[in-house]
Write a structure and sequence with these properties.
Strand 6, helix 10 and strand 7 form a beta-alpha-beta unit. Helices cover about 50% and strands about 15% of the residues. The mean pLDDT is about 100. It is an alpha/beta fold.
Length: about 200
């Protein structure tokens, strides 16, 4: 094998996550829902929790700016688990097979530290890694270089022999910039083929 370890992104790779899964019920009007998720509870606002801001702070700050949407804003926190439709079972199967071969596996994810614990309780596959780097815990997020360096240093990885999969191309580009062997995740079948090409007997 040309690799010694496999690192997984989580959202979009192992977990099917989207705010729309929650808000389709809370805000049935598609235009109204899109406006809320684009202009109020924005991806940038959510990313601050991935960088370590607490949900209590996040909800309080946004509610002060948009008191008319207080209930919907609070739901982003209290109803967070409903944003996860489930596990991508075919990708989870690849992870299980890798572990059965004795290859170390790690998680490298942009995730609120608080919600990571919620997700691990709900989806046991997330507890199967040999180690995890969670942006909200480290208070630094992808695609910043620092979080990749933390991964490499903490687990003593050889970047050139560490395979990383992520559904966001810019995160893959950042991983490659620090020397990781990284590919964009486009589905479990492609992931399996990418690993087989590196000598992993899946």
């Amino acid at each position: 094998m040309t690799i010694d370890a496999v690192v997984f992104d989580i959202g979009g790779v192992l977990l099917d996550w989207s705010p729309n899964y929650l808000y389709a019920d809370l805000i049935p009007d598609e235009e109204q829902r899109s406006h809320f998720l684009t202009n109020v509870a924005t991806p940038a606002w959510n990313h601050k929790q991935d960088e370590g801001r607490t949900w209590a702070e996040a909800v309080a700050e946004l509610t002060s700016l948009h008191p008319e949407h207080a209930e919907w804003i609070a739901a982003y926190d209290t109803g967070w688990l409903k944003m996860v439709k489930g596990v991508f079972e075919d990708a989870a199967a690849v992870l299980t097979e890798i572990k059965a071969l004795g290859l170390p596996t790690y998680a490298l994810t942009n995730f609120s530290g608080e919600k990571w614990e919620v997700a691990k309780d709900a989806f046991p596959i997330l507890t199967q890694f040999d180690g995890e780097i969670v942006s909200g815990v480290e208070q630094t997020a992808k695609p910043g270089e620092k979080i990749y360096r933390i991964l490499i240093d903490r687990f003593g990885l050889d970047p050139a022999r560490t395979f990383y999969t992520d559904d966001m191309a810019y995160n893959v580009d950042a991983a490659r910039a620090v020397g990781l062997d990284a590919e964009v995740f486009t589905g479990a079948a492609d992931l399996r083929a990418q690993l087989q090409a590196r000598g992993v007997a899946l």
